Amino acid sequence: MTNQLLLYKAVELFDGLTTDQIEALITISQQEVYHEDQTIFAQDDEGDRMYIIRSGQVEVSVQKNIHTPAETKIFLGQGQIFGEIALIDYGRRSATVKAMADKTVVDTIHRENFNKLCQSNTAIGFVVMRNLAIDLSYKLRHQNLRDAER
Amino acid sequence: MVYKVSYVVLGGGHPGAIINQFEEPEVGQHVRIGKKTFEIVEVNELMPARGDFAFLHATVRLLEAKRKKNL
């Protein structure tokens, strides 16, 4: 089993997929490497892909307006996904994401390739979309717990 | 088992993190979030486990703050 397959089996987004289905996703993913403090994408950028963190951490920050500094919303580590909102709603990036460590490695899945794969294999589309919803609810739960701490 | 951990920092001044890890987090362990190190003070289940995934909530405190208190 390849390292990438092992990693993807530990990513909740792909939970419930068969090895063949995960391998189909691997064929449409591309690896990118970022150095410490490098911006992966900026708020209001156009977004056409989502990201899976293979190693390292990223900081997600939001700037409410040009007169206020950006506020860090969360740090995401190995196995987490980001950029999925733009993949779903075709909107611009809602946050800026920056690598926090040298050699932060992410895999990207382009929307167009993802949609094509889901159309040719609807089972993959159903499972991944269900897992995306679970991941978004987990992030909301994290935010609620953080708000309760304030 | 993969542990998906929501790290929430005491006091709420820090955004915390979500990290997948292969080892269950334990009280007293240190965790690096962004550019700071924290100590785990509590671990609870956040959602019931599903398949190979466990969903945990860990409360942490900044290690530097604890060190300063001890001085």
How would you describe this structure to a colleague?
With 150 residues, chain A is an alpha+beta fold. Chain A has a single domain (3-141), classed as Jelly Rolls (Sandwich). Helix content of chain A is 40%, strand content 27%. Chain A has helices spanning 3-9, 19-27, 84-89, 111-120, 122-149; strands spanning 29-34, 39-41, 49-55, 58-62, 71-76, 81-82, 96-99, 104-110. In chain A, the strands form two sheets. In chain A, strands 1-8-3-6 form a four-stranded antiparallel sheet. The radius of gyration of chain A is 15 Å and the shape is globular. The N and C termini of chain A lie far apart (44 Å). Chain B is mostly beta strands and 71 residues long. Chain B has one domain (2-70). Helices cover 11% and strands 59% of the residues of chain B. Chain B is built from one helix and five strands, in the order βββββα. Chain B has one helix at residues 63-70, and strands at 2-9, 17-21, 30-33, 36-50, 53-62. The interface between A and B is medium-sized, with 28 and 29 residues. Strand 5 of chain A pairs parallel with strand 2 (17-21) of chain B.
* Largest sheet: spatial strand order of chain B: 2-1-5-4-3
Strand portion of chain B: over 45%
Total domain modules of chain A = 1
- Shape type of chain A: globular
- Please provide the count of β strands of chain B: 5
Helix content of chain A: 40-55%
Q: Strand content of the residues of chain A, in percent? A: 25-35%
Number of helices of chain B: 1
> Could you please say which CATH topology of chain A applies here?
Jelly Rolls
CA-atom Rg of chain B in angstroms? 12 Å
Total count of strands of chain A: 8
Low-confidence stretches of chain A: none
End-to-end CA span of chain B: 39 Å
Q: Give the SSE order of chain B as H and E letters.
A: EEEEEH
Structural class of chain A: alpha+beta
Largest sheet of chain A, in brief, is:
4 strands, antiparallel
Multimer state? heterodimer
**Global outline of chain B:** elongated
